[in-house]
Amino acid sequence: MMQIINPFTDDVIDTVPDCTPDDVRDVIGKAVAVKSKMANLTAFRRGQILNLAAAMIETHADDIAQTLAMESGKPMRYAKGEVSRAVETFAFASDEARRLHGETVPLDAAKSGAGKIGYYIREPVGVVAAITPFNFPLNLVAHKVAPAIAAGCPIVLKPAPATPLTALKLMAILQEAGLPDDAFQVVVGGADVGHALVSDPRISMISFTGSPPVARQISKVAGLRRVAFELGGNAATIIDEYTDPLAAVNSTIIGSFAYSGQVCISVQRIYIHQTHFEAFKDAFVEKANKLKLGDPLLESTDIGPMISEAAAARVESWVDEAAEQGADVIAGGKRQGKMVQPTVLINTYPAMKVMAEEVFGPVVCLIPFTRFEDALEQVNDSPYGLQAGVFTDNLHRAMQAVRVLNVGGVMINDVPTFRVDHMPYGGNKDSGVGREGPRFAIEDMTTLKMVVINAKT
What we know:
Strand order of the largest sheet: 12-15-16-11-10-18-19
CATH architecture of the largest domain: 3-Layer(aba) Sandwich
CATH class of the largest domain: Alpha Beta
Largest sheet: 7 strands, mixed
CATH superfamily of the largest domain: Aldehyde Dehydrogenase, Chain A, domain 1
Distance between the termini: 64 Å
Shape: globular
Structural class: alpha/beta
């Protein structure tokens, strides 16, 4: 059995079965057996199951949020927000299930197409394998499970070993909502379980959220099968001269430090026009220093623990390294166990780890700029391209940013951390392949079948 540990108290919350590769193969066999049943569910029934699940998640929201906060260390205010978002994710998927359709094709547009009728339909791709990280134990799971159900695909999920309890609660909810047996199964374990899952030839599609190195390993075994990768980032925000810099402070504080920065679109780099730099810096540091660290189960807590002491120690070492290389730590920078203070750095340069790589912790770098074009170039100077934020009242510059930034999403007058759950979400470069959001995930989880009817015969 595997022990699930509360990262704040180090208490054992629960134990769950520690799966083996043989267990994974058995689970996949059950998913294959239910494949036809899932494919034959009507759009009405798929939508009904997803709607019921959304309602049940909402009914049990407090209990789910408690479990989520305990296993992940996410402050309760953010845990409740995640549960609320998951309700919407299932509701959006329910809508998409009901309107999943193909299109007619005007075959007579071709010389040889006279007298023929053409259309295509969407069919489920088959069994989906999903692997999710610890930082959103419910909603990132929902973004794989709900579209799979909407598409008519059985799905086997491997959640992060540290945070499987919320996913297991979701599995029970979907069973109660009427999902066919074995259409959604959870396997808990380490890398051997993940390898057994993605390497099994009976899996038709792999949907993975995590790090680029693991995605590359999955790519090696995926072969010709479909993949969707939602990977990391070191998200940047620009504070232009044509904006009120103080109006951006509150949103950038939340975007930088929510869930201790353990969010792939957490604000990590803020480029501030030199005319606003000092005012923004002072206000930002003041707010950062007022954030309350503590027990994630308390509503008053802003910053909880990181998922592990190893993760916290790594963040601390990157900050220390940046300081040794000439950066100035103007807020935070200290660690106690798994708790890392909200940390603000200045005088950083692009080659530092805190600038070039994904910190995945409560660390943000403030960088002044003079020319807007230079700020855009610096944002793009990254192996990642998930989302970016631009605060400006200048429409020309806003649209310039939209054109120039090589990212999956540009948030004008908001932080890159903004996401609602029906929008296309994903990145360019090392930030991923494909897009999440129920409509867009369903496109990946279905295949097109072309039908041609020769009306002449």
